[in-house]
Write a structure and sequence with these properties.
The protein is mainly β and about 270 residues long. It has helices at about 85, 190-195, 260-270; strands at about 25, 45, 55-60, 65-75, 80, 90-95, 105-110, 115, 130, 160-165, 180-190, 205-210, 225-230, 235-240, 250-255. It holds the Pfam family Trypsin.
């Protein structure tokens, strides 16, 4: 998969939470080399076969312009991803059950009518989207990830460990790499994230993680999963990184899934 990426929207809101608040960018919009989409989590580890059966690669298209994101299987006919991935797309090609994205176990294409962007998304907050798919049977390489229960709606997850995964860049500006990677990251409090980005970016709908030693989500990881290592449930959807780059040390931001459980239930009937 290669193609030219659309440069869509960067989040540039500031607030007085910090004297020098930083700006952010969606990982899919970071610069690339030679017109190719990038692939790999920075400084993570290679995923083993079946380690992340709930992830899908998502190749999106608008009038011949292609970009790459990730998504999470939350039901036999549903994928959860980021709104900034799907909002301008006309179609999406879904890659199931692969560690190497060139060798998926299954591939489906869906049209614009199956891309459901959160109604309050305007290019920043509420960065969450659903993709309706054909029915997919589950087995060892393709399976769903559970959402948090309604009882977890007020869980901050601060100071807990979580695993991100995706086909995003292995370092700032790197070219495509084909194999899925995973990285373990520590969730920080909203106030810590606001101290870096300000409250207009790090809202209560955002969950942030530390990015020590250059470990982070990066270009190509947008929309992918952040899974609690304690509960094994999906708590975040990859949304943004520092505009200075994936390895700059700024917190990485994820859409907080617990804030959207009611919306997901209304659209899909899925809840716990």
């Amino acid at each position: 998969m290669a193609g030219r990426l659309l440069f869509l929207l960067s989040i540039v809101g500031l607030s007085c939470a910090s004297s020098l608040p930083q700006t952010t960018v969606h990982p899919k919009d970071l610069p690339i080399q030679h017109g190719k989409f990038q692939g790999r989590i920075t400084n993570g580890n290679a995923a083993t076969e079946g380690q992340v059966p709930y992830i899908v690669g998502v190749s999106l298209n608008a009038n011949g312009n292609w970009w790459w994101c990730g998504g999470s299987i939350i039901g036999n006919t549903w994928i959860l991803t980021a709104a900034h991935c799907t909002v301008d797309a006309n179609e999406a090609i879904l890659y199931y059950g692969s560690t190497n994205f060139n060798q998926p176990s299954l591939r489906h294409t869906v049209g614009r009518e199956n891309l459901i962007v959160h109604p309050e998304y305007r290019g920043g907050d509420h960065d969450i989207s659903l993709i309706r798919t054909l029915h997919v049977d589950f087995y060892s390489l393709i399976s769903e990830i559970e959402l948090p229960s309604m009882d977890d709606r007020y869980n901050s997850f601060a100071n807990s460990m979580a695993q991100a995964s995706g086909w995003g860049a292995i370092y700032d500006g790197s070219n495509v790499v084909e194999d899925l990677r995973v990285v373990e990251l520590k969730v920080i409090s909203v106030s810590e994230c606001q101290a870096y980005y300000g409250s207009s970016i790090a809202t209560d709908n955002i969950l942030c993680v530390e990015t020590p030693e250059g470990k982070s989500t990066c270009h190509g990881d947008s929309g992918g999963p952040l899974v609690s290592e304690e509960t094994g449930k999906l708590i975040g959807v990859t949304s943004f990184v520092s505009s200075f780059g994936c390895q700059a040390g700024g917190p990485a931001g994820f859409t907080r899934v617990t804030n959207y459980l009611e919306w997901i239930k209304e659209e899909t009937g899925i809840y716990y």
